[in-house]
Design brief:
Number of domains: 2
Helix content: 25-40%
Keywords: Hydrolase, Manganese, Metal-binding
Strand order of the largest sheet: 1-2-4-3-5-14-6-13
CATH architecture of the largest domain: 3-Layer(aba) Sandwich
Number of helices: 13
Strand content: 15-25%
Pfam families: M20_dimer, Peptidase_M20
Organism: Reinekea thalattae
CATH superfamily of the largest domain: Zn peptidases
Shape: globular
Low-confidence stretches: none
Radius of gyration: 24 Å
Protein name: Amidohydrolase
Cofactor: Mn(2+)
Bound molecules: zinc ion
Distance between the termini: 43 Å
């Protein structure tokens, strides 16, 4: 049992059971980036029953991306995996009108409820995807001992099943009490947070320019039961770096070769020699180093993956500029060519002071002791909600990132990842109180 460090507030057992039921329902069927067909369908059906207007599938994507026929045109992923997952789910639910709209990987949705009383537009983001991790069957793992482990080869090993359930429980509360609220509520259920940056794809939807307030959230992360009102993340750029040289016989005519492997080796050591930056934290790493030549052939092709992270977009850009210089210099020295093919990108977003302050009030209202609340904190991970937060902030709104800290039982993306399920109800409660605070502040 975890120590109940957080609030003294009485937990409503009925509400807790419902949000836990939802979490366990989604936990059993994790779907990977842009294949969240079943998950999206489940969410749509739940919200339709609550009176939300739902934008999803091709209709959702077409305004921002009018000519795109398949999600693989927008995101770095394998189109076949998307199509195979679609074939699988449509064989289980034939002729399903929800699913038909999502063919090609157009998953996720945006649900809106309008109080029809003028007031602020408040948005929330919940990510819905799982990871390609085989879940632990150990009896010490709560989903295993309570019989709700994943039914497939994927796993909700980052808590996005929890985020989805918080979103639905909040949606229910908003719809039940809409006559006491003002303004408009926008619930964003975002696909593909893990990897191909669904947040970047979604950020192009015009709705983010209409939000006065916006909150994204995550459970876990801190490995302790405490709350951060304005969490920020590292900016990240990743690439495949490819050196192209000339093959040659290693003994007969080595002088005719242009050694890509040697250039790549030199590049790796010199990239790690790039200076740190005095403005803040930076990180870099290399992986997936390959050259297919046998030892009797001078390597004509070598590649590796490179990841750069910085506390600000400027620090990340600094690392990127320096890495480009290093790679170009080495290519020149070894007489080879080099290219950097982008793999992924996360940006840093500022937490809007207005949103953080309202959130702090909401967390206090929920009964969380002040010593367990932090206003701002940096975590060395990355998150694609930042693309949407930047759109909101740029358009004059105020966006922030809430962390519902909890133990993680092995850490994120681990086969035994889990979190304290009662944090889900705190999540719903805090977001609900945030809405009250926004409504009051705009009166
Ligand atoms: Zn994750
Ligand atoms: Zn996550």
């Amino acid at each position: 049992m975890t120590d109940r460090i957080l609030p003294t507030k009485d937990i409503d057992q009925g509400e807790l059971e419902e949000v836990v039921r939802l979490r366990r329902h989604f936990h059993q069927r994790p779907e990977l980036a842009f294949t969240e067909f079943w998950t999206t369908r489940e969410i749509c059906q739940y919200l339709q029953g609550l009176g939300y207007s739902i934008q999803y599938g091709k209709d959702l994507y077409k305004n921002a991306y009018p000519s795109v026929q398949h999600i693989s045109e927008l995101a770095a992923l394998d189109a076949n995996l998307v199509d195979e997952a679609y074939a699988q789910v449509t064989s289980e639910y034939p002729n399903d009108p929800w699913l038909e709209q999502m063919q090609g990987g157009f998953t996720g949705l945006i649900a809106t409820l309008d109080s029809e009383v003028s007031g602020p537009t408040v948005g929330f983001r919940f990510d819905i995807d799982g990871l390609p991790i085989k879940e632990s069957a150990e009896s010490s793992h709560l989903p295993s001992s309570n019989s709700f482990t994943s039914s497939n080869e994927n796993m909700h090993a980052c808590g996005h099943d929890g985020h989805t359930s918080i979103g639905l429980a909040l949606a229910k509360q908003i719809s039940e009490q809409i006559d006491q609220l003002t303004g408009r509520f926008v619930l964003v259920f975002q696909p593909a947070e893990e990897g191909p940056s669904g947040g970047k794809v979604f950020a192009q939807f015009s709705v983010f320019q209409q939000l006065d307030y916006f909150v994204a959230l995550h459970v876990g992360i801190l490995d302790a039961r405490r709350i951060v009102c304005g969490l920020s993340f590292l900016s990240l750029k990743s690439f495949t770096v490819r050196f192209k040289g000339t093959n040659a016989h290693a003994a007969v005519s080595p002088e005719l070769g242009r050694n890509a492997l040697l250039a790549a080796c030199s590049a790796v050591t010199n990239i790690f020699a790039i200076s740190r930056h005095s403005d803040g934290v930076s990180r870099m790493n290399v992986g997936q180093f390959h050259s297919d030549n046998p030892a009797n052939v001078i390597s004509g092709l070598a590649e590796f993956e490179l990841e750069l992270r910085g506390q600000s977009n400027e620090i990340c850009d600094f690392l990127y500029q320096r890495a480009q210089d290093v790679l170009q210099g080495i290519a020149l020295a070894y007489g080879v060519e080099v290219e950097m093919e982008p793999l992924g990108e996360y940006v840093m977003a500022e937490n809007g002071a207005a949103s953080v302050q309202l959130m702090k009030q909401a967390v206090l209202d929920a009964g969380v002791p002040e010593e367990l609340i932090t206003d701002y904190e940096l975590t060395p991970g990355s998150e694609d909600a930042t693309f949407m937060m930047n759109e909101v902030n740029r358009s004059g709104g105020s966006a922030s990132y809430l962390c519902l800290g909890s133990q993680t039982f092995g850490g994120h993306h681990h086969p035994e990842f889990n979190f304290d399920e009662d944090m889900l109800l705190y999540g719903v409660d805090i977001l609900w109180r945030y809405i009250q605070r926004v409504n009051e502040s705009e009166k």
